[in-house]
Amino acid sequence: MGRFQPFHLGHLELVKQILEQCDEVIIAITSAQFNYLEKDPFTAGERIEMIHNSLKEANLDLKKCFVMPIENQFNIATWASYLKSALPHFDKVYSGNDYVAMLLADSGITVVKPDFLDRNQYNATRIRSMIISDENWKECVPNAVYEFLTKIDAKTRLSVISKSDTNPTKH
Fold it and tell me: Transmembrane residues, as ranges (predicted)?
């Protein structure tokens, strides 16, 4: 579960780790309704495509991988119930986000804290900044993501959004 803005090598490693421990993985793309924002520049459809292409490129069994967008909920207390209704059945959630872990654990959902690759290097905020400033971000993402973001000219989108004075907010 994550925003995947963009999907990077740390995310791919987590998917591999989960598939070693579980029969299937549901990759829930959160904040699906947000896009073209500084923190959420890519659409749910773009993120699905990035993830799907990366899993395929890594030769993971796509029959064991569900990639699903889910919208954020305004009532945080009912979020766990929403997840249970919006996603296929799941036994546990892998999350390194302490806030998410607290919310789900309070609802009786088992939360597993995964082992992460270097979270400083594999950090979507940092990668978006590297794209804008033409740093070598290619080493942080699967090749499929690099190709996709190049094709959609993510650099221009991110640059324009970061300089925008309209500063749209989430509603």
Answer: none
